[in-house]
């Protein structure tokens, strides 16, 4: 990017400058050892970055312009000058009625997209009245057993006006079918629906571990969803390829980047193998990243991610410019929240949110400061939303696009992350690809090792967390009113599902479930019989079990 | 002794507690073994060994399933290495046997080596006796699986399985290193992988070669293929294991081997006891002083030994 | 290095919760603190956990749960241990546990209850203290 002669001069002077310090070691000594100036991911950071660090960077080739290849600076030509990012707070708890009330509250306060958190039994494919759901109904999200529950959740919310994101993976196809069925009842045609289903099963095997079926049938379900969405739901993202959970499980920034992109490419390859045209489904793939506290490393990660994706998609023959775009949602880091001095979490979240915005995110969830204690309270949720609004409306960072481009440090970091990402790609390739690497516990082991190392660095004081291993105070006060899900609500949910099983047309349900088994055993798109089944109020657990009959269940290889 | 009484009436928790006592060398442990010893000798003890990643625990899991189909009660002892630095251990074999956690006729116990070499822990032999007295029909012992000299298992088990998997490249090398000699049955696990047939053939050839040299033995180690994750080959494996037991019985080897093992165990015990006794009667620091003298060439090792033994006779 | 009396600890993840980062880190930390660690893996029922604890004769069952079901699943494990005459097995817990839930859990003998951000040493010390006092009867 620079005249080689000038680079030479800079390098020369840099050495001179360095030598000046050596003569004054005491006066200019640094406050810690050179190896201890590290990012949260253990990346060593130099005292100073100069043009020398990015001398092989080619502006047009590697950075370019917003909305143009390779999209390092952003996926749209106007970015936040055109439209701000979507402020999308993930929420959902207790009964469908509770969640519906919370959604109306959030929409009133200016939230522009909904994001549904389901309770654990739904994520694992159990109905609320299953013995495996004991004690867990509505605890970590909203309970959805059947279409009945989805109808309540979205009661009074026009599905053609709002975009909805659903955090659901193994049973994703069923929840999408239910959403379509709710829209039908509202009189909204499915092509008008917009939103995202997470659906990213690969990261479940890798990190979050809410799987049901083995990887191969899981991938088949996903390609069936791709096909259906590309035909009928042009504004729906059938999968949100997620690094968030990988990072939260303990991965470093580069691991998050590399494993997530490797997963993304695995979905692309699966779609191609299923005979789909890359430009028919690639434009609808979206991503979901974590934004951790290490400010510049995160921004570099986002920028590198866009560039790598664009390059890889081009390699795979994508012609539609939209196929090259990596659009992503970001959530601030749950694991960075501390139990100690919880108000500090507001500050952490603000910095993380700022990194996401400077990294060019399309939508953002900011965590509530009390989440290390319990489910977020209404007050805490509001502060979290206000954090985003302050960044958008007051700080001025949204006035220009990618303001950190050209920073020697940020560009060098972006390059470094790209390089290390490709090193991981090679390792994964050598193991036979993503699914074989999962079965060999490659990702799981890398993540567990990074997590343990990080924790030891905190214990030793090499990494500082304010209020945890430095600046501690005695405290035990509850920060604010905490939210709890009561037993009555749980029983209410269980009763509703039990009653449904008696009152619906059980003959129709049985027939629909048989159709699902038939499709699962063959090669017909399984979305159609699932849609029929949810319409006659087959429960989530029943549909999951019907597919289990054919697909079997996944068994994890233990790490130790 | 209350615990022994409970053990003999089939109380799993008494067995669990007694194994802890043995491991920690609590004062009542020896007395417990004395009391239960007459009640042992009924179980078929099966050893499972092989290099890391050969799928030992998964095979054991699959074997338990098959034995349970035949209504046999099963005890399992899994040995994992202790860290030489901290003495801690992660005992991770059991997690692969999750299908049997709540079957009351299956008892699984994990042991750490606690410094023992040879693939088993010091408490393993007595743990086997305890599960035997508990009334388990079959006791499966899974060794550490470091791929090194894990030959202690022959002293503890009637039937020894040695596992290998295709695709490791050096599997035959490991076999040659001596572990082959201890195998009654050679299992090629993960046999759905490429190279399984080739590995099985190579092993068969090696067995044939070895067997010619030992023509007096009637049992020729068999090579079997399994896919433990899918229970493929396990029924045949169990049949072969049972056939091996029949062979041991009919050829009187059960008794002969048993005697040999007892002999070895007694010698080991006397050895250990004598050394502890000797170190005990020596004055604090005397032993170290003696060692120092040998190092300084003031005295030779044989004379030093005589000096120590003198204390034994004079006591 | 010492192969004297070892603390045996079961790290268990009850319920429908795949968040095993903390549990895996703890397994390593307990091992490095010289304990013998048995890990159950995820998605275990209280019955499976208790059966494992009894067969392995562990001193401590350490439960990790981040999905909010601790008020039912933790006491269930403790209850089953008592039913099997194993009330001397120490039960500790951790995860996302609101402050006002703690008194009830502690009343039932489930202690620790550490949240995110707790230093490993704090957790290890808690376990060692309880084992020494309750299992080994040394002050």
What does this protein look like?
The complex is a heterotrimer of chains A (560), B (315) and C (139). Chain A is of the alpha/beta class and 560 residues long. Chain A is 49% helix and 7% strand. In chain A, the strands form 2 sheets. A 5-stranded parallel beta sheet of chain A has the order 1-10-9-8-7. In chain A, strands 2-3-4-5-6 form a 5-stranded parallel beta sheet, with helices on one face. Chain B has 315 residues and is of the alpha/beta class. Chain B contains 12 helices and 8 strands. Chain B has a 7-stranded parallel beta sheet with strand order 4-2-5-1-6-7-8, with helices on both faces. In chain B, helix 2 (12-23) crosses helix 3 (28-36) and helix 4 packs across helix 9 (234-250). In chain C, helix 2 packs across helix 3 (70-83). The longest helix of chain C is centred in the last third of the chain and has 16 residues, at 120-135. The mean pLDDT of chain C is 92. Chains in contact: A-B, A-C, B-C. Strand 3 of chain B pairs parallel with strand 2 of chain C.
> What's the number of helices of chain B?
12
Query: Overall pLDDT of chain C, averaged?
Result: 92
- Rounded mean pLDDT score of chain B: 89
The count of DSSP E runs of length 2 or more, i.e. the number of strands of chain B, is: 8
Number of helices of chain C: 5
Q: In this structure, how is the largest beta sheet of chain B organized? A: 7 strands, parallel
Describe the main β-sheet of chain C briefly: 5 strands, parallel
Total number of beta strands of chain C: 5
Distance between the termini of chain B: 34 Å
Beta-strand fraction estimate of chain C: 15-25%
- Give the % helix of chain C: 40-55%
* H-E order of chain B: HHHEHEEEHEHEHEHEHHHH
Distance between the termini of chain C: 23 Å
* Number of individual domains of chain B: 2
Overall geometric form of chain C: globular
Multimeric state of these chains?
A: heterotrimer
């Amino acid at each position: 990017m620079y005249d080689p002669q000038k680079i030479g001069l800079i390098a020369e002077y840099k050495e001179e400058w360095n030598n000046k310090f050596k003569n004054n070691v005491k006066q200019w000594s640094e406050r810690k050892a050179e190896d201890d100036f590290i990012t949260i991911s253990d990346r060593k950071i130099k005292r100073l970055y100069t043009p020398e660090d990015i001398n092989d960077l080619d502006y047009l080739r590697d950075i370019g312009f917003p909305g143009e290849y390779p999209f390092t600076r952003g996926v749209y030509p106007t970015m936040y000058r055109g439209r701000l990012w979507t402020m999308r707070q993930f929420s959902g708890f207790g009964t469908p009625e509770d969640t519906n009330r919370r959604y109306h509250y959030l929409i009133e306060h200016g939230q522009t997209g909904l994001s549904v958190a389901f309770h654990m039994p739904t994520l694992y494919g159990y109905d609320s009245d299953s013995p495996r759901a004991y004690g867990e109904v509505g605890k970590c999200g909203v309970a959805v057993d059947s279409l009945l529950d989805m109808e309540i959740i979205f009661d009074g919310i026009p599905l053609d006006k709002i975009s909805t994101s659903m955090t659901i993976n193994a049973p994703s196809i069923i929840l999408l079918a239910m959403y379509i069925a709710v829209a039908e009842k509202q009189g909204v045609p499915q092509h008008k629906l917009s939103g995202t289903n997470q659906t990213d099963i690969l990261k479940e095997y890798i990190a979050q571990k809410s799987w049901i079926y083995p990887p191969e049938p899981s991938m088949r379900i996903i390609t069936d969803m791709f096909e259906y969405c590309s035909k009928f739901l042009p504004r729906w993202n059938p999968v949100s390829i997620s690094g968030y959970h990988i990072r939260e499980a303990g991965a470093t920034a580069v691991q998050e980047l590399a494993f997530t992109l490797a997963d993304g490419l695995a979905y692309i390859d699966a779609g191609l193998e299923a005979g789909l045209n890359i430009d028919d489904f690639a434009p609808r793939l979206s991503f979901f990243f974590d934004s951790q506290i290490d400010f510049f490393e995160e921004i570099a990660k986002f920028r590198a991610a866009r560039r790598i994706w664009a390059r890889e998609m081009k390699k795979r023959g994508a012609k539609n410019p939209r196929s090259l775009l990596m659009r992503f949602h970001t959530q601030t880091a749950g694991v960075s929240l501390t139990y100690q001095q919880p108000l500090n979490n507001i500050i952490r979240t603000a910095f993380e949110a700022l990194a996401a915005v400077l990294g060019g995110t399309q939508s953002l969830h900011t965590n509530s400061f009390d989440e290390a204690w319990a489910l977020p309270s209404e007050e805490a949720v509001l502060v979290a939303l206000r954090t985003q609004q302050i960044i958008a409306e007051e700080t001025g960072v949204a006035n220009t696009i990618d303001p950190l481009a050209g920073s020697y440090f940020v560009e060098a970091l972006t390059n470094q992350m790209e390089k290390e990402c490709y090193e991981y790609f090679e390792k994964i390739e050598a193991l036979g690809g993503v699914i074989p690497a999962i079965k060999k516990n490659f990702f799981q082991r890398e993540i567990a090792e990074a997590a343990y190392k990080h924790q030891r660095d905190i214990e030793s004081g090499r990494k500082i967390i304010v209020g945890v291993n430095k600046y501690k105070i005695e405290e035990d006060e509850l920060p604010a009113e905490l939210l709890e899900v009561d037993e009555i609500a749980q029983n209410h949910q269980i009763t509703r599902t039990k009653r449904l099983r008696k009152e619906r047309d059980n003959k129709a349900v049985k027939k629909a479930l048989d159709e699902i088994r038939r499709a699962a055993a063959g090669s017909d798109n399984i979305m159609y019989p699932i849609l029929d089944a949810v319409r006659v109020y087959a429960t989530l657990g029943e549909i999951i079990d019907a597919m289990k009959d054919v697909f079997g269940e996944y068994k994890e290889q233990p790490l130790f | 002794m209350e615990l022994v009484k409970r053990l003999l009436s089939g109380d799993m928790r008494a067995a669990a507690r007694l194994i802890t006592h043995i491991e920690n060398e609590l004062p009542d442990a020896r007395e417990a073994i004395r009391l239960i010893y007459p009640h042992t000798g009924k179980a078929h003890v099966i050893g499972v060994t092989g290099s890391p990643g050969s799928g030992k625990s998964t095979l054991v899991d699959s074997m338990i399933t098959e034995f349970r189909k035949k209504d046999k009660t099963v005890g399992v002892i899994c040995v994992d290495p202790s860290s030489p630095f901290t003495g801690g251990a992660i005992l991770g074999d059991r997690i692969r046997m999750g299908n049997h956690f709540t079957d009351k006729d299956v008892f699984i116990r994990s042991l750490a080596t606690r410094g023992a070499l040879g693939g088993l822990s010091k408490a393993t032999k007595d743990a086997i006796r305890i599960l035997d007295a508990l009334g388990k029909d079959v006791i499966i012992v899974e060794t550490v699986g470091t791929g090194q000299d894990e030959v202690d298992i022959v002293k503890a088990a009637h039937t020894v399985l040695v596992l290998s998997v295709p695709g490791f490249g050096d599997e035959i090398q490991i076999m040659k290193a001596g572990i082959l000699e201890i195998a009654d049955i050679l299992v090629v696990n993960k046999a759905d992988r490429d190279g399984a047939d080739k590995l099985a053939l190579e092993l068969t050839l090696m067995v044939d070669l070895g067997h010619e040299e030992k023509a007096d033995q009637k049992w020729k180690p068999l090579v079997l293929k399994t896919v433990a994750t899918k229970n493929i080959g396990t029924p045949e494996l169990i049949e072969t294991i049972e056939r091996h037991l029949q062979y041991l019985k009919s050829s009187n080897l059960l008794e002969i081997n048993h005697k040999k093992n007892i002999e070895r165990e007694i010698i080991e015990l006397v050895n250990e006891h004598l050394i502890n006794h000797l170190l005990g009667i020596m004055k604090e620091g005397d032993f170290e002083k003696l060692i120092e003298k040998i190092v300084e060439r003031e005295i030779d090792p044989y004379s030093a030994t005589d000096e120590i033994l003198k204390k034994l006779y004079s006591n | 290095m010492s192969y004297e009396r070892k603390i045996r600890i079961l790290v268990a993840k009850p319920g429908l919760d795949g968040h095993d980062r903390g549990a895996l880190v703890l397994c390593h930390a307990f091992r490095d603190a010289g304990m013998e660690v048995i890990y159950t893996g995820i998605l275990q029922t209280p019955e499976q956990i208790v059966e494992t604890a009894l067969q392995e004769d562990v001193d401590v069952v350490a439960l990790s749960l981040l999905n909010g079901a601790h008020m039912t699943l933790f006491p269930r494990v403790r209850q089953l241990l008592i039913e099997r005459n194993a009330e001397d097995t120490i039960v500790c817990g951790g995860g996302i546990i609101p402050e006002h839930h703690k008194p009830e859990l502690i009343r039932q003998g489930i202690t620790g209850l550490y949240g995110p951000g707790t230093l490993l040493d704090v957790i290890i010390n808690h376990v060692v203290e309880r084992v020494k006092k309750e299992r080994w009867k040394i002050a």
